[in-house]
Design brief:
Structural class: mainly beta
Oligomer: single chain
Largest sheet: 4 strands, mixed
Number of strands: 8
Order of helices and strands: EEEEEHEEEH
Length: about 160
């Protein structure tokens, strides 16, 4: 069986990142995914997908939107933020017992006070393009060869 290898790169690796112009950083604007520091390599082959600008504002820069490629450095442990959220409560009965699940859906974030913590180096795995041999000789791995994502997720009949 062929093995897949990987290595690690850091977010400071010199890569041409197509950062959006300041006038293009508007609520709901769509950007190229390559502006994200961990979007690298040949494993991402998205053709038409875009990254939506989230409503994350920086009060230290007159309330300007934080560009998506800067969120990793602006939203880090120790930052004081104010968030506008919707609250959802799901009440369900499980085994005769009432259980509640709470969900916060963030609509907007404003950074009130930036963190004093240093920006952590983002370790980005670089995966090998070498494929794994799905040999039928290995019964554990061979089970994967019967999985076909093109078939409807309905239950299959046992043979």
């Amino acid at each position: 069986m062929a093995a897949s290898t990987s290595s690690i790169a850091t977010s400071s690796t010199n890569v041409n990142i197509p950062t959006p112009a300041p006038d293009k950083v508007t609520p709901g604007a769509l950007h190229n995914l390559r502006i994200l520091p961990d979007y690298r390599g040949s494993h991402f082959q998205l053709q038409q997908n875009k990254l939506k600008q989230l409503n994350i504002y920086d009060s230290t820069e007159n309330g300007k939107l934080i560009p998506m490629h800067e969120t990793y450095s602006k939203l880090r442990p120790g930052a004081l933020v104010l968030a506008i959220c919707n609250t959802h409560i799901y009440n369900m009965v499980q085994n005769g017992q009432l259980t509640s699940t709470f969900q916060l859906s963030v609509q907007a974030i404003k950074v009130l006070d930036p963190s004093d913590e240093p920006v952590e180096e983002c370790m980005i795995p670089i995966l090998s393009t070498m494929s794994v041999d799905m040999s039928k000789d290995d019964s554990i791995i061979a089970g994967f060869s019967t999985f076909d994502i093109t078939i409807s997720p309905t239950k299959k009949n046992k043979h």
